[in-house]
# Entry
Amino acid sequence: MKCYKCYGETKKEKLKGIEIDRCTSCQSIWLDYNELDQLEDTIWPHDELKGSLFFGTKVSSISCPKCGTQMKKINYRFFDLELEMCPNSCGFYLDKGEEKRILELIKKDKKAYKRKIKAEDEWAKVLGKIKKSLKLLKEKDLSSDKKES
Ligand SMILES: [Zn+2]
Ligand SMILES: [Zn+2]
# Structure
């Protein structure tokens, strides 16, 4: 496979156990559609919790190495990272170093999610305490009412 960005030679290489094609001159990599998913799953295997993947419809100047369709520029999961994707879901082009950014972003997302869950947990505890004290207040009111009457 030739690099469709600079027409350089590509070489097979392993990235987190996934076989990818990296260009020996511009260092961009091609990921098959499911390989991006596999790459993310090495960090965080909960697809349903990750943001939407497809955002943006800017047309890219390169065409898909698999089907020849003009690729689209997409924003990766609403992060400030632009990837090239084949509109026929063949796969993605990642520029030099972008695979590292993806891994970092997924790590961050995972941390943020865990923080959110923790915050929700804490909030539930607080709510529980409020409910409990309200109940106590009510019971107190009832008993004082009884005394007065
Ligand atoms: Zn290249
Ligand atoms: Zn394609």
